[in-house]
């Protein structure tokens, strides 16, 4: 089109020049040369001006088309790299359903929050191994090395368990999951763990342990049918309680850390959702859980690392130089307690967000019942690692730690059949074996 107009314009110029030639015909031969040369100059000038104008039109047209194409390309490629959601779509839904598939009659269908965490990984595997459907949810936060969480996710994937990357506060995601799957149970383990980190990042405890817990309860309350919920509270709710061993009806109104306060608040929030909406809720107060795939922020793990690297370890001492002691509980015993809590949980009694009759509300201690002092823990590690620790003993700072924990598990024994069987020596042996394998593999990479 542009070329056609261009040619037409040139044709008109030539016609114009012809009439110019006629009008300006010289009357005398002497003048001819001069007239001719003027005429040629004008002809050339006009040709030059017209061509220049059209060249400009073509260049600007070319630039415009290039910019437009660039813009359109960017628009398309932006849509490709930034999906609206990291979850959703037919293939995602297929994955979710496959992960929730049960392989035994009466198998549970469990949503495990915090599935890429230490306890979540073990509980998910145990459920899957006995034929239950399991779907994991975890936000893979970097409170400790997320590569360990990714390795656990890989392990779960190899066993047919999908762990969705998402936050428990994502209400749209939770709604989508509950629309897609009729979960019989929710094993809620996602939380901001650790006591000392609250000095650095208090908001993370509120985000996960308070707001997140409410978001999970809200989703469960609205689901139809409502699932039964088992969730992780903590021995830390006993706080400054001095009566030993700790029993479920002991005082829990003196938390020594923000972590403990959020777990205690969680127990009260659980009461509310049970009371108003008929959710069946079981809180488990875990006592210092340890074992393979454990948490690097915990003393037994970080001590192992430092001892092997020849670095000093800091051991806290309580008032009057009394050693701190913990009721260390091996992960396999905790898993048995979790599964027993799921199996014995009564059904929730609400529907459509309304309670129809009273529902079950339970709390159990899951501990080992035999506290061990921290220096003894180090003795055992030295023996297993065959390396002497460089001990740096200091007075316990006021950072949220309590001097000792000791569980009475009579209630869990009676009602859940809970019976811890692993002593610290045998449990740490399994941990050290895993630690060496895992870190040898990963440090090679
Ligand atoms: N390990 C123990 O000794 C112990 C003792 C008492 C209580 N607990 C409780 O048991 C549960 C499991 O503990 P753990 O030792 O496996 O800890 P963990 O940190 O290994 O596991 C918790 C997981 O939850 C995830 N998570 C945290 N906030 C989340 C959020 N907002 N949305 C989605 N995922 C989120 C984390 O990424 C992590 O993978 C926690 O509730 C913890 O408070 C543990």
Helix-strand layout with pairing:
Blueprint: H1 2-23, H2 29-81, H3 90-99, E1 109-113, H4 118-129, E2 133-138, H5 146-158, E3 162-165, H6 171-180, E4 185-188, H7 202-222, E5 228-234, H8 258-277, E6 281-286, E7 289-290, H9 299-309, E8 312-317, E9 325-326, E10 329-330, H10 331-344, E11 350-351, E12 354-355, E13 361-366, E14 372-373, H11 374-385, E15 390-395, H12 410-416, H13 424-444
The structure holds nicotinamide-adenine-dinucleotide (NAD).
Nicotinamide-adenine-dinucleotide binds at residues 114, 116-120, 138-141, 149, 167-169, 189-193, 208, 212, 232, 234, 286, 288-289, 295.
Summary keywords:
NAD(P)-bd_dom_sf, binds nicotinamide-adenine-dinucleotide, Epimerase_deHydtase, globular, isomerase, UDP-glucuronate 4-epimerase, single chain, 13 helices, alpha/beta, disordered N terminus, 445 residues
């Amino acid at each position: 089109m542009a070329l056609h107009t261009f040619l037409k314009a040139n044709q008109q110029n030539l016609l114009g020049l012809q009439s110019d030639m006629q009008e300006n015909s010289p009357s005398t031969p002497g003048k001819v040369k001069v007239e001719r040369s003027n005429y040629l100059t004008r002809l050339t000038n006009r040709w030059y001006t017209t061509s220049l104008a059209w060249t400009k039109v073509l260049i600007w047209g070319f630039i415009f088309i290039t910019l437009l194409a660039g813009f359109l390309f960017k628009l398309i490629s932006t849509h490709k790299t930034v999906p609206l959601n990291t979850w959703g779509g037919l293939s995602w839904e297929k994955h979710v359903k496959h992960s929730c598939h049960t392989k035994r009659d009466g198998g549970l269908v469990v949503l495990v929050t915090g599935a890429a965490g230490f306890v979540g990984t073990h509980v998910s595997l145990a459920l899957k191994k006995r034929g239950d459907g399991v779907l994991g949810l975890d936000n893979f936060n970097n409170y400790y090395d997320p590569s360990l969480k990714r390795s656990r996710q890989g392990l779960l994937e190899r066993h047919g368990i999908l762990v969705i990357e998402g936050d428990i506060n994502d209400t749209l995601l939770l709604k989508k999951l509950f629309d897609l799957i009729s979960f019989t149970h929710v094993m809620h383990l996602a939380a901001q763990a650790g006591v000392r980190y609250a000095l650095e990042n208090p908001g993370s405890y509120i985000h996960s342990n308070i707001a997140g817990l409410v978001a999970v309860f809200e989703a469960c309350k609205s689901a139809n049918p409502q699932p039964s919920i088992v969730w992780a509270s903590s021995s830390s709710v006993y706080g400054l309680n001095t009566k030993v061993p700790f029993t479920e009806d002991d005082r829990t109104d003196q938390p020594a850390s923000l972590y403990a306060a959020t777990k205690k608040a969680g127990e009260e929030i659980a009461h509310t959702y049970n009371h108003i909406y008929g959710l069946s809720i079981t809180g488990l107060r875990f006592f210092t859980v340890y074992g393979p795939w454990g948490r690097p922020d915990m003393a037994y793990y970080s001590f192992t690392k430092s001892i092997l690297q020849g670095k000093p370890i800091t051991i806290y001492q309580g008032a009057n130089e009394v050693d701190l002691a913990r009721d260390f509980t091996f992960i396999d015993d905790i898993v048995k307690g979790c599964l027993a809590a799921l199996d014995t949980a009564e059904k929730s009694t609400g529907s459509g967000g309304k309670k129809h009759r009273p529902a079950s509300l339970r709390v159990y201690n899951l501990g080992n019942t035999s506290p061990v002092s921290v220096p003894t823990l180090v003795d055992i590690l030295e023996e297993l690692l065959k390396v002497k620790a460089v001990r740096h003993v200091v007075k316990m700072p006021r950072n949220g730690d309590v001097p000792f924990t000791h569980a009475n598990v009579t209630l869990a024994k009676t009602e859940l059949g809970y019976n811890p069987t692993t002593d610290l020596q045998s449990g740490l042996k399994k941990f050290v074996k895993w630690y060496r394998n895992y870190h040898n593999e990963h440090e090679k990479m």
